[in-house]
Every structure is written in structure tokens, then in C-alpha cells.
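User: My collaborator sent over this chain with a note saying "see what the structure looks like." That's all I know about it. Can you take a look?
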Amino acid sequence: MVSNRSKVSHQPVMVAEVVELLITNPQGTYLDLTAGGGGHLKSLARRLGPRARLFGLDWDPDAVDRTRRALRGIVQPYNIVQAAFGDLGTVAARFEDERFDGILLDLGLSSYQLESPERGFSFRHDGPLDMRFDPTRGRPAWELIGSLDEKQLARLIREFGEEKQANRIARAIVMERQKVSIRTTTQLADIVLGAVRSPQKNKLLARVFQAFRIAVNQELEQLARVLPAALHLLVPGGRLAVISYHSLEDRQVKRFLQAESRGRCSCPVELAVCVCGAVERVIVLTPRPLAPKSEEIEQNPRARSARLRVGEKL
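Assistant: Without extra context I'll predict from the sequence alone. Here is the result:
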């Protein structure tokens, strides 16, 4: 199958907001945990001084290559490595700097990934049901689909896709795989549409594909690990910016920032004052998440679900 990647261009989301809120020190150090195609890093470089330093990681090897190509010619030194963002706690030792003035985490899929049929992320293209960000690690989606029992499949689709008709879809998957191995995106899409009647077919398929992608890459577990690790690596006054695209991610980020802004107090609720010694570590700069402006959504419809939250380390 021929890849479309040479024809694809990726637009980084909420660039102006990220640059405005993330930069506190024009000569500081900045880390993009999901470098993608390098768009956010390149935009940061335009606003930073020549002594600033840029770092990035991505668990997709193709994204690492694209980022390195995109950053050629910038005046700041940079270092891009391949790793999952959930491994930040150990990967940070590979960078020249151990503390950062700003850390960005954009949890969305890139256009390159969505438009590459061989990656299996999109129901719009026929391809193998892989869905791994790093094709060399973990189990592809077709293995999960072929090995989980009906209850496990239903739970996965319901919890990670927030799909109410998860039981019917899981039952249809199990019935179909008794006849033939489910190995392609088209097969999965046809099963879902055959099991559930919906006037919003694309949203239905997006939820189901999202569920398997999250499970394959253990994205929520990765997010739970990276948030405290990122906060630890910030200098006082440094900022953490997270762009999420669905309620599961956004809720997790919101709760983390709220907990750190309250100092993770463990006192019983009936106590009038805190006596456990909890210390506030974060100022939440976005009490409500920021959404893309209408002009950006017109130019890049995939940005419509993006939500940006930012916290500053005390």
C-alpha cells in the first residue's frame, strides 16, 4: 500500500496560545513531549533568544525524523529523542538540561499519523489495525480485538471510547471473529456500523477507534506518569501546558492541576484548616480550558476539540 505521507501537511494546534503562555524566559529551556512534526518547537524558536535551548521527544520514530528536519536552520541548539512521554522520568537524563522553563504536552494525533493507512489510526483509510505510536513496541490493535473476551471488549469500548452501545459492538466483534480474523480498519468499521445504527456514523467510529488506540498505547497510564514527572522537572516559575482532545484526558489533567494547586491535602473534610502540611505547588493559569479560536477551526477542523490547560510551578 502506498503511503500518503508525502502529500500530508500537519498544522500544530493553538500555536499562538502555547507560545504566549509557555514562554517565561526568552533564554530558557523548553521541552515538547510530543514533538510531532516540530511545529510547536519551531514556533517557540521564533520567539526565543539564541541562548535558549529546545528539547523534544516522541514515541513515533517517523515524528522524530520529521521534527529534526523541521528544526534545521533554527539558531537555538536542540535535541530530539525517541521515547514515550510516559517515560519522561527516565528519559530526562538523556538531555543536556535537567530543568525546564516550559514543558508542552499535545495529546492529539498528527495528520501524518491519521493519513498514513499503514498505521491503522483512521477508519477513513483501509489498512492494518495497528494503532501503535511506536510500531516496534506493544501489541497492535488487531491482537487486542482477537484476544479479549466480550466483557473485556465492552468495557474497553465503554471506558475509553465513552460509547453507550459498547455491549452491542463487543458482541458483534466476537461473532465476526468466529468466522474470520479481524485485521483491518475497514473490517472493524463495517462491524461497528453493522451493530449500531447512528445518524452520526463518523463520531461513532471515532469513539470506537479512539478506545482501541488508547488501550493499545496505554495512553491514560502514560498521562498519569508524565504529569508529576513534568512538574518535577520544571524550574520555579516554569509552566506546564497540556492540550487534550477528549474528556478522559482533559479530566485527568484538570484533576492533577487542581490537586497540585491545593497541595494534595489529605486532611478529613470536617477539619476547618489543613494540618497535614500539604504545600501548594501550582498556580492554575487557566481556570477554564482555552479552546481554539473560530478562525483556527475554519483553517484546521481537527483542532475543534482541543482544550489547553496551563499551570505554573511555585
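A starting point for your reply to your collaborator: Confidence is low (pLDDT under 50) at residues 1-6.
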